[in-house]
Amino acid sequence: MKKTLLATALASLMAVPAAAADLTLKFGHVGAPGSLFEATVNHYAACVGDKSGGSVEVQTFGSSQLGKDKELLQKLKLGQVDFALPSSIMSSVSDVFGIFEMPYIIKDRDHMRRVQDAMMDKLQGEAQANGYYIVGLAENGFRHITNNVRPINVPADLEGIKLRTPNGAWRVKMFQQYGANPTPMAFSDVFTALQTGVIDGQENPYAQIASAKFQEVQKYLSITGHVYTPAYILASDKTFSGYSDEVKQVLTDCAAETQTFTYEKAAALETELLQVIKDAGVEVNEADKNAFIEASQPIYEGFAAEVEGAQEMIDQVLALGQSS
After folding, report:
1. Which of 94, 260, 313 has its CA nearest to residue 321?
2. Chain centre to alpha carbon of residue 145
3. 256-276, pLDDT tens digit by residue?
4. Residues 6+ away with beta carbon under 8 Å from 245
5. Sign of the dihedral defined by the CA atoms of residues 177, 286, 222, 220, in that order
6. Beta-sheet strand order (sheet of 220-223)
7. What residue ranges of the chain have pLDDT lower than 50?
């Protein structure tokens, strides 16, 4: 009898659902399983759940399930998504974010943190002026070139190569300057485009290359490190401002914690994933970075000429890199 009562009691306890969160938020991103984006977003979601005592739940949706970067930016404003993790596409929101499209301007993650400390008010102001709110920064990483035509040692080797770029005007201008034929394309379309020969190559950090399995459809990896791209834990300004102070605090604290996690994870992946790419049979070469830096001067000049206050930003970021 006691056993029956105990079994009944346990069954009723198991039938009671866990307490539902007071607030459920959707986080969409384009990262594939195993990507740095996925690790970043999952860490953020776990942190928010933990710090809020379960009262705030962040549901994660990777692999462009809720839309590609451009669509996610629109859905944030429409309130259909609560968070996104855009990177290069932020330069299409405001030219100010184009500072991170300048080749070789960010030297390392410590440099990036100093730039963040010095320029966050400016970046946040631009985001809010366009309807967004930067909850915190993560990263996409240092970008390198893969292709199926030839190893890339100097910019001239890019001549005529059809290279996928993100939807950012300055990245396109950069590769035009180097002699490539840049083709803006959503990340989720890149594998098939490489496989079918619609494009010859692409440029991304190792974490994106390996998780998207580009090593299966690319012959050459050239280590250029031409751009470091931050990623932005981004919300709608209208939506974010509607949260309670307690919720805002949890969301921003977890963004700061996630940035530290992401930087450590990214540094580890740079070693691990380069080996994964090599093991897949991709031929790897170190590019002549000085040749790329020399060829990049007109991009800086164009940015300074076209964007108000750009020369001041360039000078500030370069100065902050001198102590790296």
Report:
1. 313
2. 16
3. 999 999 999 999 998 999 999
4. none
5. positive
6. 181-184, 162-165, 201-204, 144-147, 220-223, 283-286
7. 1-18
Q: CA–CA separation, 270 vs 273, rounded Å?
A: 6
Looking at the DSSP bridge assignments, the partners of residue 134 are 234
Q: For the chain, what percentages of helix, strand and coil (3-state, to nearest 5) are there?
A: 55, 20, 30
Helices (H) and strands (E) in the chain, counts: 12, 11
Which contiguous run of DSSP H or E holds residue 221?
A: strand 220-223
Which fold, 21-320? Answer: D-Maltodextrin-Binding Protein; domain 2 (3.40.190)
pLDDT digits (tens, 9 = 90+) for 160-173: 999 999 988 899 99
The domains of the chain are located at 21-320
Contact 51, 128 (CB under 8 A): no
250: tokens are 């949890």
Closest CA to 252 of 233, 271, 267, 268: 233
Element containing residue 147 per DSSP (H, E): strand 144-147
| Prediction pTM value | 0.91
Please give the single-letter amino acid code of residue 22: D
Rounded Cα distance between 28 and 11, Å, is 36
Q: Is the dihedral of CA 314, 316, 317, 318 positive or negative?
A: positive
Selection from 229, 289, 264, 214 nearest residue 88 by Cα: 229
Task: Count how many Cα atoms sit within 13 Å of the Cα of residue 106 in the half-sphere of its side chain.
Answer: 24
What distance separates the 2 farthest-apart alpha carbons in the chain?
86
